[in-house]
Structures are given as structure tokens and as C-alpha cells.
Specification:
single chain
Length: 454
């Protein structure tokens, strides 16, 4: 990112030639902003302040150039005028600034309706300590500027890309339930106060927007008892709106937005219950019930029933439910996790046969159903937490399958550690468990050393 900025300054100083300097435009700044926004080695506060600094400089240069263009009277726009992509890059950069522990403020009510978007003078002058709030403020400011222009200045007209950047910023803000409520509030503002009232046709929430809100609730579900339930409520609202409007039409008869839930939507809700299962074991059962709904709906659609688009569960969906059982620590968690793993493996094998291939011919199988190393590590984690007598033996058996069967993903360190945990748990009352743990550790070291020599 620093190198990208240094190159921009070299261009501006004419070090690369006057022709290069004269070609600098808003895209040049946008690329530097994105370099900062996507840099993994810089802190969030540095990134947020830097993209804001670049935006202010760009806007000032554009203002000066606009005056020159206006005086010239040729009707051309400034090449430096920020556009929708520039503002989206700034919002992405703002999103890197996370909330501090206990940070984040609820700017919206329970259903997310904004109380006073503009705020009081003191509020407007306060520099937000959460990047998502800066991103939201910028989005609202752009909408105000767009309306002030008589809705003709497309350079400041907010769009769905910017909306999604703000929603993702809140979802990943580490602001907990307040972040989720704020994300929901922004979505409702865009949908109910802006788009539905004809104030901006480009600010129409799509499935990506709704999924960002679902993700926001999922991320705080472990420590907020109502988060998973709220995520499912939003999902059911999406289903109801789609079902009530001409069999999953794109828009309702009354002009309301209809957004069809997709597999990401369902996976986000399942993930919310998976996280909640650490505190409430019944959440794991609810996660599996939603998975079963998807399976039944998918099979029903292809057996000639229903008009709704079939939503096929994928490996992430199954892995999240296995995670839920592992997190629940219920007496049947290990059995449930292994059962789901076997079910997924069976579905994958059947997909291979239906396509005329075998499980070894991955190109002829359904890649969306192929179990991953995360699927296996989640199953092994469930076994490692189990009090069942044969849990360690079952974990070892699955690990050996992974080591010997080239069709399966190769075990990673989490898989080995889970089996070691299972063996350690049985060491005091199962003869040979401690020895097998030592042998497994030696095997891990041997395999790691062999890979290091390749």
C-alpha cells in the first residue's frame, strides 16, 4: 500500500513524465485506496485514516479542477471527480477499523429504524471510533448530496455496491449485537426510506445485502441469546415475501422488494445456531432442522413438487451443522456429527454416480458436496469432546481413512490435535491410549519433516 501511494506521488510530481502526470484521475486514487483497504499488514485505524485523507485530497483537487473546467466552458467533467467506485473503496477501508472491546453504539431501534440520521451538532463533530459508522455516515451524506443535486449528479449517487460495503463493515465491526442492529437499520433505511420512496433507484438491497445482515447476527450469536433467532426471523421474512409474490418473483405486485434467500442465507442462519450451541445445546438441533428443510425442499423440487427454485445445501452448510453439534457438547453430539459426515459423503458419492463418474474422479462429481478438511476436523472435534468410551477409537479410524484414501482431504494439524485430545481424554482408563497418542505425535512429526524436505 505504501508503495502504491509512493508511485502516485511520483506520478503527481512528474517524475514519470508530464504525460503520465496529466493522466492521473480518480481511478489512480481509487487503486491506492484499495491497496490500503486490502492490506493485511496495517492496522485498521491507519487504513481508515489514510483512505479518508486520500479522499479529502482527491475532492479538493477535483474542486480546483472543476473551477478550471467551468471557466474554460467546454462542458467537460474533472477527471479527478470521485465516483461511486472511489467512495466504495473508502467505505471498504473504513470497514477495517473495528470496534474496541465493548465498543460500538446502537444507532437504531430494535428493528433497526434510524432515530436521527443527521444527529445533533456534537454527534456530527464526533469522529466515530468504529469504521462502520464512518462508512454509514459517508453513505448517508452521499444520498443527501445526490438529492440536493436534484437527483442528477450520478457521481455522488449511492448504489448497491456502497450499501453492501457499509453492511459488511457493520457485520465485521466486532461491535456485537449493536453492530448487527446497525446493519439491519441501514438496510431498512435504504429499502424503506430511500428505494421504496423513489429517492434512489440504485440503492435497492439485494441478496448480498440481506446476507450481510444475517452474517452480522451470526457473528454475535455465541454471546447474544436472541441473535440466532433474529437471523432466522429475517430469513423467514425473505421466504414469506418471495412465496407471497407470484412464486418467487423478483418484485412484489405492490412494488415491494422481494429478495430470494440463497444457500448463503441459510448457511448464515445455520452458522448463527452453530455459534449459539456453545451456550444452548438445543441450537444444534435447530441448525440441523433447517438443513433438513433445505434437503427436503431440494428433493421435492426435483421430484416434481413446488415451483420455488431449489436451494441445494453445500459442504459449508453441512460443516456448519457438524460444528453446531461439536459446540453443543450434548450426549449425542459425536454420534450426530459422524452421522452427518457419513450422510454428506454418501451424497457426494451419489453425485459422482449420477454424473457417470466415481468419487476419485472429482471433475465428474459435484464439487459443492465434496467434504473438506474443515468438515472432517469439525467431526473429529466433536469426538474429542465426547465422553463415549469408543470416541477415541472412532476418531483414530476417521483419521486413518483420511491418511490412506487419496480421495479424501489430507488431515491438517487440527485433525491430528483433535485425535490427540480424544486419546488424552481416555488415557487414564483405556489401556494403550497414551501409547497411541505418542505414536500419533511421532507420526505427525515424521510427516511434517517429510513435507519439509520436498
Amino acid at each position: 500500500a505504501h508503495d502504491a501511494e509512493a508511485l502516485l506521488w511520483s506520478m503527481q510530481d512528474g517524475e514519470l513524465g508530464e504525460d503520465v502526470r496529466d493522466e492521473i484521475d480518480s481511478i489512480s486514487y481509487q487503486n491506492v485506496m484499495l491497496a490500503y483497504a486490502r492490506s493485511g499488514d496495517l492496522g485498521g485505524e491507519i487504513v481508515a485514516d489514510k483512505v479518508e485523507e486520500l479522499l479529502m485530497e482527491l475532492e479538493e483537487k477535483a474542486r480546483v479542477e472543476e473551477e478550471v473546467v467551468t471557466d474554460r466552458g467546454d462542458g467537460k467533467r474533472s477527471r479527478l471527480a470521485p465516483n461511486a467506485f472511489v467512495y466504495a473503496a473508502v467505505m471498504e477501508g473504513y470497514g477495517r477499523l473495528k470496534a474496541r472491546r465493548g465498543g460500538g453504539r446502537n444507532r437504531h431501534g430494535r428493528r433497526g429504524l434510524a432515530t436521527n440520521p443527521e444527529g445533533e451538532d456534537e454527534e456530527r463533530n464526533r469522529k466515530p471510533d468504529v469504521g462502520a459508522e464512518r462508512a454509514e455516515n459517508l453513505l448517508r451524506s452521499l444520498q443527501s448530496r445526490y438529492e440536493s443535486s436534484g437527483m442528477v449528479d450520478d457521481r455522488v449517487r449511492p448504489n448497491g455496491v456502497q450499501l453492501n460495503a457499509v453492511l459488511n463493515a457493520w457485520a465485521e465491526s466486532d461491535a456485537g449485537p449493536d453492530g448487527a442492529r446497525n446493519a439491519e437499520g441501514v438496510l431498512e433505511w435504504a429499502r424503506d426510506d430511500v428505494w421504496s420512496k423513489g429517492r434512489n433507484d440504485y440503492l435497492r438491497p439485494d441478496a448480498v445485502a440481506y446476507n450481510a445482515v444475517l452474517n452480522a447476527w451470526a457473528r454475535c450469536a455465541e454471546y447474544d441469546e436472541g441473535a440466532a433467532t433474529r437471523a432466522e426471523e429475517i430469513l423467514r421474512d425473505m421466504e414469506d415475501a418471495a412465496n407471497e409474490n407470484e412464486g418467487w418473483a423478483d418484485d412484489g405486485n405492490d412494488g415491494a422488494i422481494v429478495v430470494r434467500p440463497n444457500v448463503i442465507s441459510y448457511s448464515s442462519v445455520i452458522n448463527a445456531y452453530a455459534k449459539r450451541a456453545r451456550q444452548d445445546p438445543s441450537a444444534a438441533r435447530r441448525a440441523e432442522e433447517i438443513l433438513t428443510e433445505l434437503e427436503d425442499g431440494y428433493l421435492n423440487r426435483f421430484n416434481g413438487g413446488g415451483d420455488a427454485p431449489a436451494i441445494k445445501p453445500n459442504v459449508r452448510t453441512y460443516t456448519s451443522v457438524i460444528d453446531a453439534h461439536a459446540n453443543s457438547r450434548s450426549s449425542t453430539a459425536a454420534d450426530d456429527a459422524v452421522r452427518l459426515l457419513r450422510r454428506l459423503v454418501d451424497l457426494y458419492d451419489r453425485s459422482c454416480r449420477s454424473r457417470g463418474g466415481t468419487a476419485g474422479g472429482r471433475s465428474e462429481c459435484d464439487p459443492d458436496l465434496r467434504p473438506t478438511v474443515q468438515t472432517y476436523s469439525a467431526t473429529l472435534a466433536a469426538l474429542s469432546k465426547s465422553d463415549e468410551i469408543d470416541a477415541a477409537v472412532r476418531a483414530e479410524s476417521i483419521l486413518m481413512e483420511m491418511e490412506r484414501d487419496r480421495r479424501l482431504p489430507h488431515p491438517n494439524v487440527r485433525c491430528y490435535n483433535a485425535v490427540l485430545d480424544a486419546l488424552a481424554k481416555r488415557a487414564s482408563d483405556e489401556e494403550g491410549a497414551a501409547i497411541r497418542a505418542m505414536e500419533l505425535l511421532e507420526r505427525m512429526e515424521f510427516l511434517a519433516d517429510r513435507r519439509g524436505r520436498r
